[in-house]
Amino acid sequence: MSAFKLPPVSDSQNGWGPVGLSSQFRDIPYAPYSKADKLGRIADWSAAEGTQGKDGRGAGGDQRGGRSGFRNFRDNYVPFGSNAANAFNYQHTEDEASFSVVDNRSTAQKKTTGFKSSSGQRGGRGGFRQQGQQRTQFQRLGANRGGFGGARQQQGGQRGGRRGYSNWRDFDRNQRVRDASVKVGSDWSMLEEIEFSRLNKLQFEVEEPEDIALYGAVGTYDKAYDRVNTKQEKILQQVDRERDNVTTSEDPILSNLASEPLAEGEQRVFATDTIIGVLMTAPRSVYPWDIVITKTDNKVIFDTREGSQLDYVSVNENSTDPPMDTGDKDNINSPSALSLEATYINTNFAAQVASSEQVVELENANPFYNPDEENVPLVGYRYRKFDLSTTEEENITLLVRTEVDAVVKSPQGEDTYITVKALNEFDSRAQGAGGAMEWRQKLDSQRGAVVATEMKNNSCKLSRWIVQTMLAGADHLKLGFVSRTNPKDASRHAILGTQICRPKEFATQMSLQITNGWGIVKTVVDLALKLPDGKYVLVKDPNKPVIRLYSVPKSSFEEAEEETEGAEPEAA
What we know:
Blueprint: H1 107-115, H2 125-144, H3 148-159, E1 189-195, H4 196-199, E2 210-221, E3 234-235, H5 252-259, E4 267-272, H6 273-280, E5 290-296, E6 299-303, H7 335-353, E7 354-361, E8 379-387, E9 396-404, E10 406-409, E11 415-425, H8 439-442, H9 447-457, H10 459-472, E12 476-486, E13 489-501, H11 503-509, H12 514-529, E14 534-540, E15 546-552, H13 558-571
Parallel strand pairs: 2-10, 4-6, 4-9, 11-12
Antiparallel strand pairs: 1-15, 2-7, 2-8, 3-13, 5-6, 5-14, 8-9, 10-11, 12-13, 14-15
Helix pairs in contact: 1-2, 2-3, 3-9, 6-10, 6-12, 10-11
Keywords: Cytoplasm, Initiation factor, Protein biosynthesis, RNA-binding
InterPro entries: eIF3d
Subcellular location: Cytoplasm
């Protein structure tokens, strides 16, 4: 058995470090060290095989050679003596810039390889183009089915962005500042401020209304317009029958009902279907609006101002990039010009599709025109009463003037009421088009995608039409698709097609809850009934999802109305 010989051990009494150097180490430079230097492991025998070394690519290891989920041990400590000198560090003297990879393949072959990669890598710009072509094929399949998924894919392909990413200028959208619909006076006092988030939580159910009276006359819908398509379009004609939207306080029927004495504990509210529709769809509105409220005793009247924006039809209000006012008066695609154009289209389309040869006279004559006048508009007015009471002690009734545009023969031979509205296309390439497709190319083959785009860009407008149809008790909503004959000319239009909708089914498709709308109306009515007698204004903030209630002097808006009436003869 061999004996163990202990090596010599030197003990330094002067400090930390070696006592002296032997002859074999005298020519080697010395790197001083201290107690703060860390002593690490020379080799990590516990690491998985193939993972040691910074260039290792072993199974379960990352690109740095460590274990999965851990950094390599050599990255976690400082080597012995590195704090003092770098005499032992490896000095790289080769210039790697002089080396290059020799590849005889052509550039086209390299790009093709990037295309065919199935791992989802981009493969250069050409890879983006290839992915865009693949997406277009899927969009066509989805859009042909008429589903909303296909419509979204179609819109995403038109934007030209990457899949899963929106346009890079999305941050700049909807950042423009709009003017209020009415100027808040210095003598106005704000009483209430309600956010849309609170309005969305309201719920209230209303029973079937009671019909009070029927006025006016309606034409029979011409079913020939159901056969209109992009290849057999019809020119939109200008009809001489002007249609006025008379406000509540100027309605003779509602004025007579307001003058009647009330029963004990009864409270009455008077409004038009336009005003109730605005309240029920308030959380979807983007553009500013205002409603004048007059409280007298136990009666509340909701009115619109002279020249109010509620008398006009908006265009692409809910689009991610709505039409923008550039300040150019000749711009036919500004929000105000498009609103006038849409109102003109709706008035003429409703009058054109209702045949004047087969007129159905209602119980009473039109209350706004004399029977002897010519060109009386064909429109029916249904005055209806809704019960807004929540308890037996309450007695709150809402009297609303609703409108119907035409009648249609049912399979049983009975006359059923319908409302007629029109969606309009101005220029699919213009700013504010909202990614809409060209109707003359897609309306017949991809009707579902076109309607889905309109539901997205005009959510508030379509919701109001649905609410007004349900308030009037009409069985169907007839939608028309009207487009400019020339995108640069806003005076000539053509009818490209029609579509009939059931209001309840359409509301479900748009996620429109009628009970939520009635909850908003109930809240505003209760708030108005608790106010002292006077005049108030409910204003939608032009740039925030908020409505505010102001108390205003009784003489407010009267001077503006007198000036408007006095200016009419001069304009004529």
